[in-house]
From TrEMBL:
One of its GO terms (molecular function) is TBP-class protein binding. TFIIA is a component of the transcription machinery of RNA polymerase II and plays an important role in transcriptional activation. This is Transcription initiation factor IIA subunit 2. GO terms for biological process: RNA polymerase II preinitiation complex assembly. GO terms for cellular component: transcription factor TFIIA complex. It holds the Pfam family TFIIA_gamma_C. Residues 60-101 form the Transcription initiation factor IIA gamma subunit C-terminal domain. The keyword Lipid biosynthesis does not apply.
Amino acid sequence: MASMELYRRSTLGTCLEATLDELVNQAAMTPLLAVKTLMHFDKAFEDALRDRVTTKATIKGHLHTYRYCDQVWTFVVENAVVKTDNQEEHVDKLKIVAIDAKFGQLASR
């Protein structure tokens, strides 16, 4: 899995995939165009996160599990408190998926 394909698991990504599947099934779009659209989504998501998101978050909680596989870290934090500049959220379970930015650049070439 290319690193940018992780963004497809977001709500926005899954909705886009469902819509593209429907358009392909209705013959309103070719499968090739749907794949190109997903690739453009991956790149646009990465660019937006890199260039537009400036807020930093602090996360505290109980680290339930963690794993590292294929240069991807996955953390599951229970009873987490997520603090940003002006907001604080409490969540029962938080899953964090992180990939090395250098690996992401290599995978996208």
